[in-house]
Amino acid sequence: MVKNNNSTGHGAKSLCPVFKKCGACQMIDTPYKKQLKIKHARVQELLEPYCKVESFIGMESPEHYRCKVHAVFTHDKKGNPLSGIYREGSHEVVPVESCLLEDQKADAIIASIRGMLKSFKIKTYDEDNGYGLLRHVLIRIGRNTGEIMVVLVTVSPIFPSKNNFVKALRKEHPEITTIVLNVNDKQTSMILGDKEKPIYGPGFIYDICCGMKFKISPKSFYQVNPIQQEVLYNTAIEMADLKGDEVALDCYSGVGTIGLIASPHVKEVISVELNKDAVKDAILNAKINEVKNITFYQNDATRFMQQMADSGDSVDLVFMDPPRSGSTPEFITSMVSLSPKKIVYISCSPESLANDLKLITKGGYKAQKAVPVDMFPFTRGVETVVLLTKED
């Protein structure tokens, strides 16, 4: 457990032995309260022209929060299997035994797989010469259901002694609920390939967020920090101050998370997402939760809003949760022409948020308040929720 008063003075030992090589945790040795102060100051500075930034919502226990864990598999000069993560900005693998950010159960499963490879004569992939079978292992954990998915990413669909491997792995970790074989035979930096099949269990897991059940497949987008995900979405719903008679539009809706969580608090949710697989998952998630007042559209949100505005349709509220690069001027123009009373902007980059607020506020909206949520302790990452209202 990391104490909040840890400090690494000159010559002190870092909390993580590979911190310098890996580069993922820029604040690993900064006391937690100080991390929040530094991040708050950054958000405050960027959003100062627009609104007040309320205090940061941090975590009680900020360690081992990542419920999605990815390990790259390789080997040393003697051919012994190694697993770890790419050094930031490179394809050099930094061996990692355990990580302060990752779920400990996931780390233990990865260690077991690494230990089993020799006896099963499974070679790890070599990027330089293209030999070997196992490239990556991805673990996804349903924090609130306890369900665990293991994805073995290989270069070939033929996995020797597959059934015995599954049996041996489940003997070590009986809590694994599904194992998926994913084939990635391309020279690519993408982790997952297009072909996959379950070799144990259903090929997906469920998790629960804000009382709703969500199906998580190997490629589904689902926040890596389920504890703070719940905090983030509850904050967004609270800030919207819903009365129950609103029509809400959920843009960049992914697997429908925000729209479904908002659905009990509004009259109707219209959900727009471009990714076909995400829309499929979203429709299924609505069925699982018996939500009847939500409609999903596979479309570009900018085009969709423009069409709505042109047809004279209106919505009371827009939820937007764009990618790290932020939204686009075209999206913002379309949203402004749709003229919702309120906009709830969920952002994972304070820099792109500040850029977008500049455009949204020029379009006749006033930012009321911003609440930053610490979704990624020990890193520079910040999620922020901002409420904007239409100026009369």
Describe the structure.
The chain folds into two domains: 33-60 and 225-390, Rossmann fold; 68-209, OB fold (Dihydrolipoamide Acetyltransferase, E2P) (Beta Barrel), CATH 2.40.50.1070. It has helices at 19-22, 32-47, 104-116, 162-172, 226-240, 257-262, 276-288, 301-310, 329-338, 350-362, and strands at residues 52-53, 68-75, 81-86, 93-95, 134-141, 148-154, 178-183, 195-200, 205-209, 212-216, 247-251, 268-273, 294-298, 317-320, 342-347, 365-373, 383-390. Strand 3 (81-86) and strand 4 (93-95) form a beta hairpin. With 392 residues, the protein is α/β, with parallel strands linked by helices.
What letter string, H or E per element, gives the SSE order?
HHEEEEHEEHEEEEHEHEHEHEHEHEE
Task: Tell me the strand order in the biggest sheet.
Answer: 1-16-17-15-14-11-12-13
User: End-to-end span in angstroms?
Assistant: 51 Å
Give the radius of gyration: 22 Å
Secondary structural class: alpha/beta
Count the E strands.
17
**How many discrete domains?**
2
CATH topology of the largest domain: Rossmann fold
Total of DSSP H or I helical runs spanning 4+ residues: 10
Strand content: 25-35%
Sequence stretches where pLDDT stays below 50 over 5 or more residues: 1-11
Give the quaternary arrangement of the chains.
single chain
DSSP helix fraction: 25-40%
Shape estimate: globular
CATH class categorisation of the largest domain? Alpha Beta
Q: What is the CATH superfamily of the largest domain?
A: Vaccinia Virus protein VP39
CATH architecture descriptor of the largest domain: 3-Layer(aba) Sandwich
Mean residue pLDDT: 91
Main β-sheet, in a few words? Answer: 8 strands, mixed
